[in-house]
Amino acid sequence: MLSNIRIVLVQTYHPGNIGASARAMKTMGLTDLVLVTPRQFPDPEASRLAAGAEDLVDTARVVGSLAEAVSDCVQVVGASARLRSLPLPHFDEPDEMARDLVEHAAHDPVALVFGRERFGLTNDEIRCCSHQVSIPANPDYGILNLSQAVQVLAHELFTAWRRRPGSGYRPPRPSQERQPTREQLGHFHDHLSRVMQRSGFITQPHARTEDQLEALFARAQPSRRELSLLRGLLASLESHLPEEK
Ligand code: SAH
Fold first, then answer.
1. If you take atom 7 of ligand 1, which residue's CA is the nearest one?
2. Which of 22, 107, 108, 140 qualifies as a FRET site for 158, CA 20 to 30 Å off?
3. Going by CA atoms, what residue is nearest to atom 14 of ligand 1?
4. How far, CA to CA in Å, does 23 sit from each of 16, 52, 61?
5. Pocket test residue of 80, 85, 88 for ligand 1, highest count of atoms within 8 A of CB
6. What is the structure's pLDDT at 176?
7. Ligand 1 centroid vs 121 CA: distance in angstroms?
């Protein structure tokens, strides 16, 4: 679905902004970059600022006009810091724009268009758009650097996508933070009871103490790694206990 969302940069002046925009896109899962008559491209500065997103710079398509860049799109949102006189529907809140665009992107290509560093989008280019969006910002200084505007709106798109029911998004989780299975927890509690009995802490199976400890560990929610640390500790204590009769 994110692959249906295109980022279009119109006549970018600084190649570094193209690279930084590619990086901003890739961090948010976007891959389709189209450049309308960039002043200088390809360029080592674009690749340098892309860092790990050079693949997006390498696969970016260069076209001759905005109309060409968005001809297959069903919705085209122009990002603009200033309101123009054109009566296009306007999203005042970027998250509303993002939800709407992500919705359409489930079926068809859509585009988010960014203007030139010096003078944004021309009125003719805004006519190629179906909507406009502004990033609310300081009224005295509300114009963001191009690639930072891409970052803010790309983040909104990614957020709208991952919150969509059925997106299947799971935050990456290091394996050592995974929760133990019920079986692993069961083995831990068996081990704990055995050590409590063999050490003389309890003299016979004692359901109340065991229940309390189970509740304590249920609240603590130890990870697999922490549980195996505790198992190691129990095993070490156990090795110092007299043999079972
Ligand atoms: N001087 C230009 C702004 C250029 S900034 C002007 O006045 O229009 C380059 C691009 O970044 C803009 O064309 C727009 O696409 C995007 N951008 C910068 N700040 C923005 C904001 N607050 N809201 C939406 N887009 C913004």
1. 119
2. 140
3. 80
4. 11, 7, 16
5. 80
6. 65
7. 8
Expressed in angstroms and rounded, the spacing between residue 146 Cα and the centre of ligand 1 is 6
CATH topology of domain 175-239: Helicase, Ruva Protein; domain 3 (1.10.8)
CATH superfamily of 2-163: SPOUT methyltransferase, trefoil knot domain (3.40.1280.10)
Question: Is 0.85 surpassed by the pTM of this model?
Answer: no
Ligand 1 center to 148 CA (angstroms): 10
Mutating to test ligand 1, I would choose from 13, 96, 144, 147 the residue with most ligand atoms within 8 A of its C-beta, which is 144
Distance CA 115, CA 147 (A): 11
Domain spans in the chain, listed from the N-terminal domain onward: 2-163, 175-239
* Mean pLDDT split into 10-residue runs, the chain, 245 residues: 95 98 98 98 98 98 98 97 79 96 96 97 94 96 97 98 88 76 88 89 82 86 88 92 73
Which pLDDT score, from 0 to 100, does residue 234 have?
A: 93
How far does the centroid of ligand 1 lie from the alpha carbon of residue 137, in Å?
11
Q: 1-38: buried (b, 16+ CB within 10 Å) or exposed (e) per residue?
A: ebebbbbbbbbbebbbbbbbbbbbbbebbbbbbbbbeb
